[in-house]
Amino acid sequence: MAPAHRQSAASIPVQRARPAAADSTQAFSLRLFGAGLASAELMTCFLGLELGLYEALRRTGPATAAQVAEAADLDSRMVREWLEQQSCAGVLTVDAPERPPEERRFTLPSAHAEALLDAGSPNWIAPLVVMPIGGMAAVLPQLVEAYRNRRGLPYAAYGEALRGGQAGLNRGVFEHHLPGWISRHLPDVDARLQVPGSSIADVACGSGLSTLALARMFPDAEVHGLDLDEASIRDAEANLAATDPAEGLRERVTFRAGDAGEAGAAGHTLVCVFDALHDMSAPVEVLRACRGLLAPGGAVLLMEPSVGERFTPAAPDSERFHYAVSVLHCLPVGMSRTPTAATGTVMRPDTVRAYAAEAGLDTRVIDVGHPFHRLYRLTARP
Predict the structure, then answer these.
(1) Where would you tag: which of 124, 127, 238, 379 has the fewest CB atoms within 10 A of its CB?
(2) How far is Cα 186 from Cα 228, in angstroms, rounded to an integer?
(3) Cα 271 from Cα 302, distance rounded (Å)
């Protein structure tokens, strides 16, 4: 899900007779044009998802604008414009484009349908469409005012699209990668969680996808999800209610709106904080509370962005993505309460070590080889 690789200025043809400054300006202008085009096309993909147009195309197979409009219950002329745009963008294919507009038949290729519509696929990309367009772009006026007034913007201001997009972005990680990461890199914890009566606390659980994934990994453990955001907890409870009763998750999983200090008494073999510590105004206090939840020999497991040890402007695309998300979401959210650590998404390993040490925890950095995430195992100091 990394953004497209950047195109260097040197790779763009220029006329050598022009002064270097003009060449640089032209290259930069072309780069921003490409970014603007990509942003506009992302918005049209958002429309396709929200209006059910991709779903309609998957149901109909090759279809005319009128047929797609009927399947989606939309205006045929507006749908035709969208279909033609999506074909020019390479999202759809079109048969016989030279035919009259009303006779052209459009198709959503199966590979594109999987990426856009199949939540269970490791290639599902729709959340990366929904989160920035529906969640972040929607609050830009508020964000401008927040920056001008030197204050943050609370998580709740970003709304349902941000919550759903953020959950979707990590869904594949929780379902396809996390079980292997825990078994390989925390084998002692994995073994203890196979024992009946073991317990996990999932702090800042969001919509509960991580909590449910943990419960499926460890069928003998109780798993308790907590989050300060009540709307997220409602989403989590709905996700739990939608599980198959045969899985038995409803008997072992609980959700509560609250902070880490409300996860009950000490005794959890594993306390998780996934992709959330960098958003928090008081990360040290949260880690201190997590330490208090641990059973003897237990561990706190963080999943945080995989960023470099130090700042460099020649950052990889993954770090460029993290910086953009930080400016638009994570840093403002972290600064919405005072006092604040003002961490931001680009939380480097030394920052994690410093926070953990202040909370009385030792840190082991675990590189899992993922372009966007790394793990940290934190254990209580004697």
Answers:
(1) 238
(2) 28
(3) 9
pTM of full prediction above 0.90: no
If one counts every other C-beta atom within 10 angstroms of the C-beta of residue 146, the result is: 18
Distance CA 114, CA 121 (A): 7
How far apart, in whole angstroms, are the C-alpha atoms of residue 166 and residue 345? Answer: 13
Note whether 189 and 198 are within 8 A (CB).
no
Give DSSP secondary structure letters for 37-72. Answer: HHHHHHHHHHHHHHTTHHHHHHHH-SB-HHHHHHHH
Q: Is 271 helix (H, G, I), strand (E, B) or coil?
A: strand
What are 307's two structure tokens? 């960023």
With b for 16 or more beta-carbon neighbours within 10 A and e for fewer, the 216-235 pattern comes to bbbeebbbbbbbbbeebbeb
Interval 325-347 mean pLDDT:
97
Residue pointed to by tokens 């998300």: 325
Token readout for 354 is 């410093």
First to last CA, the chain: 41
Cα–Cα distance measured from residue 272 to residue 359, given in angstroms and rounded to the nearest whole number: 15
| Burial class (CB within 10 angstroms; exposed 0-12, middle 13-18, buried 19+) of 370 | middle
**272, 170 contact by CB (below 8 A):** no
Angle at 92 between CA 81 and CA 55, to 5 degrees: 85
* Ramachandran assignment for 197, one of left (phi > 0), alpha (psi -120 to 50 degrees), beta (any other): left
233: which strand partners?
Answer: none
- Buried-state track 108-134, b at ≥16 Cβ within 10 A, e below 16: beeebbbbbbeeeeeebbbbbbbbbbb
List pLDDT tens digits, range 32-59. 999 999 999 999 999 999 999 999 999 9
CA 198 to chain centre: 29
Q: Which two tokens stand for residue 27?
A: 């290259």
